[in-house]
From TrEMBL:
Transmembrane segments: none annotated. Belongs to the N-acylglucosamine 2-epimerase family. Keywords: Isomerase. GO terms for biological process: carbohydrate metabolic process. It comes from Prevotella heparinolytica. InterPro entries: 6-hairpin_glycosidase_sf (IPR008928), 6hp_glycosidase-like_sf (IPR012341), AGE/CE (IPR010819). SUPFAM superfamilies: Six-hairpin glycosidases. The keyword Ribonucleoprotein does not apply. This is N-acylglucosamine 2-epimerase. GO terms for molecular function: isomerase activity. PANTHER family: N-ACYLGLUCOSAMINE-2-EPIMERASE.
Amino acid sequence: MNVTEYLKVWADSYKHDLTADILPFWLANGLDRKHGGVYTCLDREGRLMDSTKSVWFQGRFGFVAAYAYNQVERNPEWLEASKSCIDFIEAHCADADGHMYFEVAADGTPLRKRRYVFSECFAAIAMSEYAIASGDKRYAEKALELFKRIQRFLATPGFLEPKYLPALQARGHSITMILINTASRIRAAIDDPVLNTQIDESLDAIRRYFIHPEFKALLEMVGPEGEFIDTCNGRLINPGHCIETAWFILEEARHRNWDKSLTDMALQILDWSWQWGWDEQYGGIINFRDCRNLPVQDYSQDMKFWWPQTEAIIATLYAYQATKDEKYLAMHKQISDWTYAHFPDREHGEWYGYLHRDGTVAQPAKGNIFKGPFHIPRMMIRSYSLCNDICNDIYHEK
């Protein structure tokens, strides 16, 4: 394989698809030019199906639009879209206690809160990325303050409703991994010791609690000290989440001049999770597995969702950058070939989100409360940059 040529082709593809398809689709169909922010419940052709707004996606699109501005092209329309989402968040998306809503109406009327702090995490990375794009340091300071609020929420007993009653004490992988990425994105805009401390604590928790070599797996839920919980939920492997965690760790390893212990941990997670996730019969990354190979409880367990595929694309590029081992480029080609053969909608633009195991479309909507302009454009932006970075590495090694 001519590595440079391969990566340049993909870099051009990522940039083209982002700028000519994905972002235009959402700017034309999703951006709310009356109330601000973004709608995500769009049908196959981009028509609005539901005006309920996901607070997650106000932050997610606020981040993506500014991230594209910073990494790909200084398009003022993208910067304006980012600011629109952030303004909507600040005006409408937090309750009096500072905890953000999960869903609001088109005009920002509160509809629903949940026990999570993911809305806050996405809002924080939107503010930090906008600070970099706009040069307005105030938004980096807002992001840092919001991050410290997240930490207070998590540390205050009883503030966030627990997932289970006291009889089942558990730790969750999701919040552990997302705090790594949230802190690292804010750190790009503003320096504060609390960010590195949180990253270190999350990395230590993944190593100590969630990695279970006896199953060659990273588990989604464990006991307070990492104990294996032998239930359907305790045995759950979410390959997409694990692969996403792997590249979050590789990104941090790169920040630390390719720290060997972090690189090794991330590659182990990626290799294990690929083995659990890749569907040898039909291709693609499957939703869920059971670490004992027992039947999985979730009804969507054998479906192919859009986001695990995008996380695998990023992770394999990071793994190749870290190792120069062409097995990771082969994995990148494997997941890319399958993903691009099944998810993009060549007729109406953007990507389908939900496929059956065999790759046929389960439902054609382009968005809902959980799918919208985040994983796909983030993959294209991050992968575009990675391809160019690796090519530059190769050039300077000659």
